[in-house]
TrEMBL record:
Protein name in the entry: Thioredoxin-related transmembrane protein 1
Keyword Nucleus recorded: no
Coiled coil regions in record: none
Membrane topology of this protein: Single-pass type I membrane protein
Biased composition annotated in UniProt, kind: Basic and acidic residues: 244-267
Domain Thioredoxin: from-to ranges: 38-157
MF annotations from Gene Ontology: disulfide oxidoreductase activity; protein disulfide isomerase activity
Gene Ontology CC entries for this record: endoplasmic reticulum membrane; extracellular region; mitochondrial membrane
Region (Disordered): 242-281
Keywords assigned: Disulfide bond, Electron transport, Endoplasmic reticulum, Isomerase, Lipoprotein, Membrane, Mitochondrion, Palmitate, Phosphoprotein, Redox-active center, Secreted, Signal, Transmembrane, Transmembrane helix, Transport
InterPro entries for this protein: Thioredoxin-like_sf, Thioredoxin_CS, Thioredoxin_domain, TMX_domain-containing
Transmembrane segments: 27-46, 203-228
Location relative to the cell: Endoplasmic reticulum membrane; Mitochondrion membrane; Secreted
Length: 281
């Protein structure tokens, strides 16, 4: 093989290598542009999903009583809830129509407001309430902007039974439930703090809470029994009280009998004295 042939062969190999290299570079560049476009698309969709309507009112522990006046639609959601994220776009669009519908649209983040979650007995997310002048109804219809608008315009909330009085969010018993929900959230936060920040093992944290719960239960039970024993005495106290009552009743009966006997003696003695008076005359 001559030198010219070897040179031509080497040049051909170099040419093929450069062609492949350029194509690979173009492919990498193309894939980079595709990835960049996809990233921009994801960021755009995420930002649009997080966009909140100016008409949407954020409700919390301090201002939730505003919904007792007028007509409201209120959504309970959580940041980690996929269904809540799917509803967010339609809910924001519905909030933009609130002025035209002459209503107000609100939202409650249950992770920030556990007391409201308990007060409204939120057991599933998202939960939607319709409120009209302090009357609460749970909305369970389709969850699209047009469906919400139709629900308000056609007054379809009239076909839904109101929340009963014992479940009314503004009642005293639901206020107690709200306190328990706040307490449970505080206990959970304390547990997370002990485990994640202080490095306490989970079993030790749970054991600590179990011991505190048992101790508080014993103390509370002791005071309850003490109060009941004072209000409704039992055992020796009850027997002594009954005996004293019986003795008092016996004494009263004896005094009554004595008074009756004295009256009888007086009545029997008076005819005799009158007869003696006549005999003397």
């Amino acid at each position: 093989m001559s030198v010219d042939m070897l040179t031509a062969f080497a040049l051909e190999i170099v040419k093929i290598f450069l062609t492949v290299y350029l194509k690979v570079q173009l492919f990498i560049k193309y894939m980079g542009l595709v990835q960049l476009a996809l990233a921009l698309l994801v960021l755009t969709s995420a930002s649009s999903a997080r966009k909140t309507s100016n008409q949407l009112i954020s409700l919390h522990e301090e201002n939730w009583t505003e919904i007792m006046k007028g007509e409201w639609m209120v959504e309970f959601h959580a940041p980690w809830c996929p269904a809540c994220k799917d509803l967010q776009k339609a809910w924001n669009a519905f909030a933009d129509w609130s002025k035209d519908l002459n209503i107000r649209v609100g939202e409650v983040d249950v992770t920030v407001n556990p007391g409201l979650s308990g007060r409204f007995l939120v057991t599933a997310l998202p939960t939607i309430y319709h409120v009209k002048d302090g009357v609460f109804r749970v909305y369970s219809g389709p969850r699209d902007k047009n469906d919400f608008i139709t629900f308000i315009e056609d007054k379809r909330w009239r076909n839904i039974d109101p929340v009963p009085d014992y479940k009314h969010p503004n009642s005293k018993q639901m206020a107690v439930v709200a306190v328990f929900f706040k307490l449970s959230m505080a206990v959970r936060d304390l547990h997370n703090h002990l485990v994640e920040v202080k490095g306490v093992p989970s079993w030790a944290s749970y054991s600590l809470f179990a011991g505190v719960t048992l101790a508080l239960g014993c103390i509370l039970g002791f005071f309850i029994v003490l109060i009941i024993d004072q209000v409704f005495p039992t055992g020796a106290k009850k027997t002594a009280a009954a005996a004293a009552k019986k003795e008092a009743k016996k004494d009263s009966n004896g005094s009554v009998k004595k008074s009756e006997e004295s009256k009888k003696k007086e009545n029997s003695g008076s005819p005799k004295s009158s007869a003696e008076t006549k005999k003397t005359k």
